[in-house]
# Entry
Amino acid sequence: MTSSPATPSPATPTASLATGQRSLGVPADAADAPGTAPGPAPRFPLWPPLTGGCPVTSTDSVAYPVEVDYAYDELPADFFATAGSRPRGHERWAPLLPPLYAPGLAEGGTPLLPLETLPLEGGVWVKDESRNPTWSHKDRLNRVTVSAAVGVGAAGVVVASSGNHGASAAAYAARAGLRCAVVTSVDVPPAVDAFLRAYGATVLPVPTEERWPLLRRVVERAGYHPVSNLTPAAHTGHAFGPEGYKTIAYEIFAELGLAPGSVFVPTGYGEMLFGVWKGFTELARYGLVDRVPRMYACEPAAGGPLAAAVRAGVPAAHVSPGPTAAYAIDCAVGGYRGVVAVRESGGGALLVSDAEMAAARDELARGGVWGEVSAAAGVAGVRQLARGGWAVEGPVVCVSTSSGFKDRDLLAVPATGAVDPGDWAGVERRLRG
Amino acid sequence: MTSSPATPSPATPTASLATGQRSLGVPADAADAPGTAPGPAPRFPLWPPLTGGCPVTSTDSVAYPVEVDYAYDELPADFFATAGSRPRGHERWAPLLPPLYAPGLAEGGTPLLPLETLPLEGGVWVKDESRNPTWSHKDRLNRVTVSAAVGVGAAGVVVASSGNHGASAAAYAARAGLRCAVVTSVDVPPAVDAFLRAYGATVLPVPTEERWPLLRRVVERAGYHPVSNLTPAAHTGHAFGPEGYKTIAYEIFAELGLAPGSVFVPTGYGEMLFGVWKGFTELARYGLVDRVPRMYACEPAAGGPLAAAVRAGVPAAHVSPGPTAAYAIDCAVGGYRGVVAVRESGGGALLVSDAEMAAARDELARGGVWGEVSAAAGVAGVRQLARGGWAVEGPVVCVSTSSGFKDRDLLAVPATGAVDPGDWAGVERRLRG
# Structure
């Protein structure tokens, strides 16, 4: 199959240079014949987005994702140098993103804050993704996936999520005038339920094992566009979604003027890990950075399908996660994108314990950045390597994904008891901690 | 008293042009003699901040606030034109702010989003303040007030708050390495309690009437610097705090290239209302804008001390608020700053009902911006004027102060019931809403 030019549309604020979709999967004949150089990656037109993964290379056990390709040579030479003069949000980077048909909410543009409690060569920075429109990194993805839904003329979007992803999809769908269905688990926290419904989403709580089948049914019978994963055989996610995460790399480069040595990413399905890595490979292609950072996946030790896949040398793995408070990155199924990012960048797949994440969350909060426990997995990963005496290539960037309000166990802590205002000695004891 | 130059310090990232404090209160002799032109405003050195209000003009019934004055003539001519090239956060505007001794969290820089459901001449924009470090506008103030605490060498900061203000003070104090005590009411919501403690603050829940006396005791006995109001006779708040809100005006100007016709602000003590107004008067002083927007205070109809003061033609009023869900702006005591902003700008003091705020909150959320109910008071105010046939001078900016997670009644709504995934007709009914 050959590449196909993107359909131009007057709704696109700036022309996208997206040209088509390209499989990340190795062609079957190359995989079957060891020693044979892999052939060219299968290519497909840009539309429709291949939400079920690559139809050529996927197997019964692995759904290989596709990625978006661009007419890279057509980018204006001063594109990155002039970024600051363009409007904020994904618009700023539109040529290197799929077409932005859905209206934006000024997603991205989050700050890079110094983490001074962790002194490493070159410095450690926290990319605070809680500063997004729905207070998590997921907005970068959903601007793109909801745009895909508008692009295919879908009646609505559907997402399986009990947290950040669902709320973000609901917000972008609302702004675009699309319906949104969020398939949640039956134990969805009340605050998340309220969050989803505020944007007008239809919440569909079902037992966990029924989530993906119901999502598929809403796609097939109601014509909704899936903006989360559709495939049971490993994770492919949305074909366009990870492109939205490339903007994290662009922003880090714009702020630091270079590529960091390492980037530590709280990792569930590995979509952000891949997107950030891809963004840096693009900057390297244009000669703007002289290296691509080592990408470190930071998964909960209770699960860790990406680490399992890397260990076993396979494209994706299934695991049976134990209990963890890091519900936002608690996944049983991995995907190939994360493996590519870790392998190609010379990074690593780290497993961090709940205790390590809780300690990192407290460290961040005492520096003024309060994230949910999973958001601190990146800082937990750096600390783990540093403690083990491993070299960490600096400067280091840790992505902090979301605000502390999202934690499920937020209200499990006993409330502070009243103090007697007349008892100064008692007040003083409290002040001393 | 004459002006005194600010003490320069190597800790200040960019030199502040602050020269002293100037009373907003009318000198007593002018007030006593109707028809007499008021004399020059009393002036004081920049340090220490006059947290108890103006010691010359205040009376038993009104504590007049002071404001910070600057060596305006010393500002580089291209200061506003080159803003985008300077680091984000209050650093960008340091010369026109009190000295920034406390480290920042990249406060401000929030987006201006079009509100397309409310078509008025010139357009309506929402300034989404939930995109701040602790997800409310209060971060703009606390960067400045915690800097004042560092500047005076205080042992810590103390704040009376059961919400955004306290959490923001706690975050900035933590980053600056200062202790923080938050005097809350005994019915502080558990999520807010957790929010405050995450940053390491000492939470002191006491009965409402004991809040200010206890705050004063912590100031006097423990040497903590007060970053919220200290005066029982009307509200003065912190002397430096409202300066932080001026950056909202600078940002609106930077984005729109002009001054809007009107700005609608959810209003409690009127500190933000005053700060935004003052920022525009500075832009007008430099000839960058040809008008100062009409400033509209939007208070809960259940209370409204500012509207009461404007109606009665007095500097500040006390009211007995009824019940309202807009707890963040539910005040019994007003302050003179808000009266100045409304009067000098030719704006108005509006009272919006809980139903109007709830409708505006839903309107905002359906456009992808989920705020707490008080955050929607600005949009509720515009709608009220438009519905009443009043002219609203455009372009219009409504400040949305904080995220929907902060609402007290968030969990009062019954949770969504589970759906039977096998019953497609039932799922379809839910999808149709």
